[in-house]
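User: Some background: our group keeps a shared notebook of sequences we're curious about, and every so often someone picks one and asks for a predicted structure to add to the entry. Today it's my turn. The entry only has the sequence so far, pasted here. Could you supply the structure so I can complete it?
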Amino acid sequence: MYRLPCLILSLDVQDVMGSHSVNVHGTLHKDRLDNEEKVMSQMVHPTKSIHAEQDHGPEVMEEQPDYEEVKQAVNNKEGCRLYGTFLVNKVPGNFHISSHAFGPTIQRMFSEGLMQFDVTHKINHISFGDDSDLKQIKAKFGLGVLNPLDNVRKSETELKKTYEYYLKVKN
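Assistant: Of course. Here's the predicted structure to add to the notebook entry:
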């Protein structure tokens, strides 16, 4: 994500079994990018969450980032490169990059007129399973598309605020 700071990006995972995790970390890393898309630093994930009572029961909410740091990152047009691995259940579901975990911060930014979403991004690589398994599949079956989203780039000039990609992963 070239124009959304790491401070307000999360990876969310949900599936048909009712599992819904917001701001999944796993071995996920976030590199802070400057406005020229160069790595400035790796973001350290906060480890604490706060619990909030809702009408439908307790819900875990992420601790919000420092507001002044978010403002500075947005004003500096920082971006974020996410990479790593995370586990998903072998049932239909989805994962998505979002700002859901940081809703209160995002709302405050919008209310003060400081935030506009630019979802320009590039998917360098995405795969399911271990690299060794993928190499065996490629060797056994030859040609085929194992990573159809690799090197896909979308730009804000396409006037979209949401992008959806669909993959069917078979076992």
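Suggested note for the entry: DSSP finds three helices and ten strands in the chain. Residues 46-59 have pLDDT under 50 and may be disordered.
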